[in-house]
């Protein structure tokens, strides 16, 4: 099964990594410490040509009940035939480490947060459940700050929830209207090196 990105490019068969050929990932990125836009841009720059498309940037109030500055959030679509799900997780951690991410407090302030939402290979959506990674992301379907930018960059996106593929548009309809309204568009824009 192939996956098409919003730019019309189909994901090609990738290099075997383990028993799955990995090609694409949806990343949710956020920052609420320091130069928030610079930290988000560092993800796109760090991914280089792997970054296929980026969403508009949104500002959202912090999630999880910890008092802190609002986040800037976006979604990045990326592909790389040489990277499997755990490789994408390593890349996410490397990008966070380069931004001096500190993990002192759950849902606390962050220079940079890079979450894997879903990965696809040539056979479809990848499911992972181990000590370090759960895919699809177990909470993405209830987080407006993930769904709103994702829908903006990939209107046909789907996510498997409880064993059933659902469109991101339908998942967003199920999110509390006040939370959806809390995802505010900004005038800021991320840029990719490949002109997308």
Describe this structure in words.
The protein is an alpha+beta fold. 24% of the residues lie in helices and 29% in strands. β8 and β9 form a beta hairpin. α1 crosses α2 and α3 runs antiparallel to α4. The longest helix is centred in the middle third of the chain and has 14 residues. It starts with 15 loop residues before the first strand and ends in an 11-residue tail after the last strand.
Helix and strand run:
EEHEEEHEEEEHEEHHE
Total DSSP E strands: 12
Work out the strand percent.
25-35%
Number of helices: 5
Radius of gyration: 16 Å
Ends: how far apart? 25 Å
The helix/strand class is alpha+beta
Q: How would you state the average pLDDT, rounded?
A: 87
Major β-sheet annotation: 8 strands, antiparallel
Stretches where pLDDT falls below 50 for ≥5 residues? 7-18
What sort of overall outline do the alpha carbons produce when their principal axes are compared?
A: globular
Helix content: 10-25%
In short:
This protein is an alpha+beta fold and 196 residues long.
How are the SSEs placed, and which strands pair?
Layout: E1 16-17, E2 20-31, H1 36-47, E3 51-54, E4 58-60, E5 71-79, H2 85-98, E6 113-121, E7 124-125, E8 128-129, E9 134-135, H3 144-153, E10 158-161, E11 164-167, H4 168-174, H5 177-181, E12 183-185
Antiparallel strand pairs: 1-2, 2-5, 2-6, 3-5, 4-5, 4-12, 6-7, 8-9, 10-11
Task: Write a concise keyword list for the protein shown above.
196 residues, alpha+beta, eight-stranded antiparallel β-sheet, two-stranded antiparallel ribbon, 5 helices
């Amino acid at each position: 099964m192939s996956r098409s990105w919003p730019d019309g490019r189909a994901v090609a068969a990738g290099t075997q990594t383990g028993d799955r050929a990995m090609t694409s990932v949806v990343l949710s990125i956020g920052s609420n410490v320091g130069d928030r836009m610079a930290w988000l841009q560092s993800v796109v720059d760090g991914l280089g040509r792997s970054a296929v498309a980026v969403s508009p940037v949104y500002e959202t109030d912090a999630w999880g009940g910890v008092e802190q500055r609002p986040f800037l959030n976006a979604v990045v679509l990326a592909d790389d035939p040489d990277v499997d799900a755990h490789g994408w997780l390593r890349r996410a951690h490397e990008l966070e480490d380069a931004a001096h991410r500190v993990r002192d407090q759950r849902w606390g302030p962050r220079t940079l947060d890079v979450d894997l939402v879903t990965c696809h290979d040539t056979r479809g959506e990848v499911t992972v459940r181990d000590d370090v990674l759960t895919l699809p992301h177990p909470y993405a379907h209830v987080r407006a700050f993930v769904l709103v930018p994702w829908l903006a960059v990939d209107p046909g996106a789907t996510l498997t929830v409880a064993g059933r593929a659902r469109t991101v548009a339908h998942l967003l309809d199920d999110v509390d209207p006040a939370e959806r309204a809390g995802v505010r568009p900004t005038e800021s824009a991320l840029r990719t090196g490949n002109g997308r």
